[in-house]
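Supplementary Methods S3. Complex input for the fe (ii) ion-bound model.
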Amino acid sequence: MVTELTHVNRAAPLDAVVGALERDGAVIVEDFVDAETLVGLRADLGSGLEAAGYSESGYDGQKTKRLSSLFHRSPRHMTSVVLQPQFLGAARRLLQRPTHMWIGKVRMDVTPSIQVSFTQAIRIDPGQGRQPLHRDDAMHLWRHPGPPCRLQLMLALTDFTAANGATLVIPGSHHWDDERAPTYAETVPAVMPAGSALLWPGGVYHGGGANTTAESRHSLSVALDLGNLRQEENQYLAVPRETVQQLPEEVQRLLGWDRCPPGLGQVETQDPLLLLERTQQELSARPRGANPLS
Ligand SMILES: O=C(O)CCC(=O)C(=O)O
Ligand SMILES: [Fe+2]
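Predicted complex, serialized as structure tokens:
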């Protein structure tokens, strides 16, 4: 049984990150973001978290505050988070598995895109108990074992300790089937300093820990999902178009302004990214793009 999670630093090669994720279902990247990003995220999200109401649900936590739409609230710093090479690289390696289909007699290779599915800042306040253990890919009714549909990130904005609510993870549980229930006895706390991040595939059982200290635990979470699934948090509505227009193209595509091959998400049969700079009428007047299924 794994009793401690693997730690790597931000210089670690992608193979080491992906290897730990495939083996243990979890890895901690130390110094995931630089100090400027960490300070900027705290500044952009702190007052929104303070103003947020507590949840009424035991699952979300009655002493836990949650703040969504993070690309709206902190576009520049969230760009640094989502483009962090070990997170984005591992998501691409784990999720973008080539597949194929027959179109008549032509065997077509297709690789799905990935997208931001969920963003949330989380503040676990003193007195919050343990969260029920769960798999985040349950949102997609995903079945196990099998290839993952999600890579999840938990960035520590303050130190994570076993006493203040560090995320509890069950190493290896991404290999379990759907009949086995998780228990707290099998969990390991993701103890890590502020600025570090826990990465785990969506099939790993986990939950927020109890905060028995007098200080709040601050963090933020991001999920990257396969592009052919519905986003958990609707990024088209959560992030204003004017904000999306300011972002690098790779982030625009990750926020869903993209087509997932062979053709999901099109607008006027075109790449939806084009709609950021053109009217819908201009798009419909363009020659139809080559759509492999037409
Ligand atoms: O706050 C945490 O450590 C975990 C939160 C979580 O897993 C969730 O809300 O889905
Ligand atoms: Fe979760």
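Residues 122, 131, 136, 154, 167, 206-208 surround 2-oxoglutaric acid (ligand 1) (CB under 6 Å). The first strand starts at residue 7 and ends at 9.
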